[in-house]
Fold this sequence. Notes:
alpha+beta; 3 domains; 4-stranded antiparallel β-sheet; two-stranded antiparallel ribbon; 5 helices; 6 strands
Amino acid sequence: xxxxxxxFKSHIKSMRYVFKDGRIAEFVGGMFHTxxxxxxxxxxxxxxxxxxxxxxxxxxxxxxxxxxxxPTLLTPEAQLRAKIxxxxxxxxxxxxxPENNMGTSSxxxxxxxxxxxxQEVGQVSGDGAVLTELKKIEQTPVVATQQDPKAMLESLKxxxxxxxxxxxx
Length: 169
């Protein structure tokens, strides 16, 4: 992989600058980049000292946002490949992050149990007492626990069953 190139920009989108040794700098799309120290030295002298407003050639400047560029990323295809590669690497990193909760915590499981109980209650009865009991269960704070999830589900079903039976008596 080649090193970074120094970037010089031009207010004129397509222009040429002739160096003292006769070589030509082609500004394409208002940009010229080089790794040649002599060219960098001469163009920096043409630009002058940044911030002091002095410039021998008012068309050439150094953009403080983009002072160097990787020459391998200059084509649109290379930029797209680099962008896709970065996205894939970010997805892989997120997938392997242990802090990401993928729905295995007891709080998430308890939430799904509550949804299951709601569906079962709705199928059994539209009774007001059952719905009141369900609201009590919903308002109970969910605390992370080491209790077996199946045991939690059975416990909630038993509570709902006892509420239904007490209403029928």
